[in-house]
Give the backbone structure.
Amino acid sequence: MGMSGSAVSQAHFEAARELRAQLEGGLFGDVEDKASAAYLKLSKFLFLTDRVLHEAETPEAKRFEMGRVRRALDLSREQLAARLAEQANPLYRKAMAQVPAKIAKVKPQTMENARKALGVVPADMFDMHLEFYQEELEKLVHGKYKSDFSTTPWDEADQLYLAKLGVALTLRPEFCDELYAEVVGPLYQAALKQHFPATTSTQYPPGLAETTAHLNLPRLQREKELKQFAREPLRAMWRKATGGDLLNNEAATDEQIIKMLEWYGRVKSLVNASFANAEVANAATNRIFQNVLVSDDELERQAELRTYKNFVKRRTLKYNEGDAVYFSDMVFLLGAEPVEWQKDVKKMSGGELRMKLYAMHRAGKCKGDGDSGEAKFELMKETKGMDRDEVDRVFRQVGLELYRYSIDELKRKWGDVPSARAMQDLLDLKTWFQLRDSDTDAVHLDKYGDVYAKAVVEAMGPAGKVEAEAKPLLRELAKRLLLDEKAERFLWKKALCTRAEPLVESLLNSWDMVTLSREGLAKKRGTDYGADLIQAEGSLGIAAEASIVPDLVALAQLFEDNEGLTSSVVEVRSPTGQPETKTVWRAITSVNGMFEGENEKVEQIYRSFLVQAHSDAKRDAAALSKLQEQLPAVLGIPASRVVAIKASMGEGIVDRFFANYFVQNPAARSLDPQGLFFLAQIQTQLGMTDAEFDEVTAGAKRKVAVARKADLFEGGALNAARAQAFRELCQGLGEGGLLGEEGGLLSKAQRRQLFALEVGAAVEGRAGADALAEAAEACMESYGLNEADSQVALLALFKLRFAGLMRVAAKNLEDGFRQRAGDGLDRVVAFGLVTPEPMAHAYPPAKVADLVACYGEFLEKKGDGEAGEKLETLKLVLGA
């Protein structure tokens, strides 16, 4: 066409403006809906414009012109880029699909030319190149070779093809290597499992070396795969050896450690077979396994080293030839100091020193005012090879052993509660051996903890409460048993739980009676309770009227009476910003562990309590409200779950209430006083703050609005009256914000549509200027529209109505019904007064003149005081 670049750019800019006008009318659907014609129309226009301007303009000019087009269509840079990519990237993928067949001819510049021609951004091109290279690699590995490289190496032609493909796609070798490792790595992992040796005697598993060579994995990737294969299982075995399950089982601990070390010896053979050079294999072993068992946590690290030391100590008593390898491997895996394992053995055993200390204790020399420092000095002179730190360590170890032994002797002699003099002898022994409180506190808790806990339970008596006069006696008992405050608190918790056990058992029994059928209860208890017990079969349980409330009341009372519950008043904020206070209860322990990990059952019991308690009008409401807040702490239900349970219950009740209310009262726009009172009762009964309950009611209101929206758009002809009713309902619910952009209930096109319907009805009804302005302002505010949005919506409606109104008016004029024609033209002018813009028409000048004359007669007969303005408006919209 011989157009200049600037002319082409201007044409596309004008086309963009026209396209926006078409799309904003909503005739092609929602422009944000990818399935709509509007979305596709806009995307294709942008891609065509981008490619045309790419050819017609310089890069700088193209950026400027595309910016004009983008702004004309009200798009951000990100939105424009995304739409261009949606069109260009699939075309580029089709071009890439031709590369394998033309690999000999394809050069990097070929792909670069294709990228520029389609406007693909470099980042997208790189991602597509990586994806395509991986797809081609997987076709070879899983298709041609069927993932089996045990006997078949890579074909040189296939390797050459992959190399050429990487060059053609401008992928750096390291990226190709990473993709190769990602696809082939799992095959190497499978080979490691297949060739894992049964014993440590197999140094080079047959077949693994050959498969490794065929796979051709880079050395570093082989190390990475070996780490993935071996390190975590090794750590898991070590965690089991150091974990609580084997804490007091020395034989099982040693067995687990030896099992781990033998597994390590077997996995080392895989490393040897994976690297042809022994020196390289040794270096890889160091990188893979050295310090592999080292914990980042210092306390765990110390515990691990203690486990190792104890293992060495025990093995020295029954030393065999293989232990030397075990000890050296342990030092390597744990990252311990590089010392001879024999030195560790010597440090740990201290056998000679131990025997001397045992002899001194039997002779009565390790108590009273004896100077242990002098004794240590004399012993060091007799014990060769042990420094002062080593002697101190053995002193504490032997002292703790003798301390435990002495307590056992005291219990045999004095029973559960020893005399004050006997306990003083024990303290003298502790002083002589320089034992720490942290060592002996644990011993006293272990030896005397049950004694104190039993005393607390007995002090509670039948009433389940430790009276004030009993507390000093219990404190004196704790001092006699040398229990510190921390141990005393722990044992008080233990006693509280012990006393709570029968209450929890009763609670669970009541729960089973409520929830299980006769058959279910017989299956669980192994006993059929007979037909005479049945009150209600099925899901209601065999004793549906049984209540769990008394059991829960007794449980909470036990905790409150025995310092198991504390309360504090905290300040919370209501949605209005006004401060509110709330009592928060905390328990020193909970009975959650007695439910055998069935957290759901605990929550179900609490939920059932809320239902039963508030349905019983005879109970004290204040006491129930307090109990409602105490029980989560006693049952061990987290605060977040309590809020969720109450919200769930409130949500179900409130949802049903709102749904039923507006079904039964279809003309209602808000709740009546009785409905508001009902909601206030529900909030009070559930003990929810304003913020928590408002969140529940907001959800219910939104569900009502969503249901009414569906009915509005799908349940019949959409008209102004139904639109107005929907808007007033949302406002009456106090959720008017739902209709705006932030509410997310309506799309922008729907908001414009409903606005146009309501205001259009007022326009066609020839409402006065003040009434029309008031209606328009109310609708704009409700639907979250600005002046420009409103004008666009009304103009789109006018364009749709104009042709129909004019066709009827012209027909009436032609048939001689001039009054009807004038009335129809008056409706056209009503729109024109609020959207004064010429409409497209196909009327000859003579016909236009007849229409104007007819309308003039109509206004004259009416005596309309605004006749002149209205005639000018009609001429404007008719283009006269």
About this structure: The first strand starts at residue 565 and ends at 573. Confidence is low (pLDDT under 50) at residues 532-546. Residues 50 and 66 are 7 Å apart (CA to CA).
